[in-house]
Specification:
globular; alpha/beta; 13 strands; six-stranded mixed beta sheet
């Protein structure tokens, strides 16, 4: 069985009181975080899970609501739940520099001290790779022009999760989501159309083309939340667990 727990389904503004982007994925042989927004540690503990279970973090892009929670995990592993086994962070180019700069900005002295546990950063290229039993297929998505931004197709234990990251529409969603067990898709707006995010009508119009078993909307902004009772596509909520 593969389980996905939604730790944060909100946008950068915590619309509707929802947490920042973070998803716990548990599968045979691996447990990891997909995104690590600033509220991820609190949400993980609220879900009754321990940080010791997390093997690594996979980031889609370097906006604060997607990676800003990492310094708090570093603190947790140093002081509150001491860690000795390695901790890995996978993300787009400049991940190591940006994460370390954030850690130093928040906890300057601690960030300068040697880590009591190995931390390994791997900067991803848009080519398939494996992390133990997990096969990761990154694909570039249109979001912030100044950043490399990825969506992911994740294959583990005969299950497939596709994650849009933050993005406007791309036909790569159709190619990657076909046959997937779950397409975790951002939905930031409803009336407003942006070239960096998806609006609900855009997703609804193409839902049948995706060819996946289940669509779950996340990264929900103020506009789609205002229309929540009338939406026909399923929306994530904080604390939600999905068994695949």
């Amino acid at each position: 069985m593969v389980r996905l727990t939604v730790l944060g389904s909100g946008d950068a503004f915590n619309s509707g009181g929802r947490g920042h982007s973070a998803y716990l994925v548990e599968a045979p042989g691996t447990t990891f975080l997909l995104e690590c927004g600033p509220t991820a540690l609190q949400a993980l503990k609220a879900a009754g899970r321990t940080t010791a279970d997390v093997d690594f973090v996979l980031l889609s892009h370097l906006h604060g609501d997607h990676f800003g929670g990492l310094p708090f995990f570093f603190l947790e592993y140093r002081y509150d739940a001491p860690r000795t086994r390695p901790f890995a962070v996978y993300g787009p180019p400049k991940t190591e520099r940006r994460v370390n700069a954030l850690f130093k900005a928040l906890y300057e002295q601690v960030a300068r001290e040697p880590s009591p546990f190995p931390v390994r950063f791997t900067e991803i290229k848009p080519a398939p790779f494996e992390i133990g039993a997990l096969r990761v297929v990154p694909f570039v998505v249109p979001h912030a022009r100044e950043l490399v931004c990825y969506g992911y197709r994740l294959e583990v234990a005969d299950r497939v999760i596709v994650y849009s990251g933050d993005a406007s529409w791309t036909e790569d969603f159709v190619a990657q989501a076909r046959g997937a067990d779950l397409f975790l898709c951002e939905c930031s707006t409803y009336e407003t159309r942006l070239d960096i995010h998806l609006a609900y009508p855009e997703i609804a119009a193409r839902a049948r083309d995706l060819g996946c078993r289940r669509i779950l909307l996340t990264h929900l902004g103020r506009e789609p939340l205002a229309h929540l009772p009338e939406l026909s596509l399923e929306c994530a909520r904080d604390g939600m667990r999905i068994d695949l």
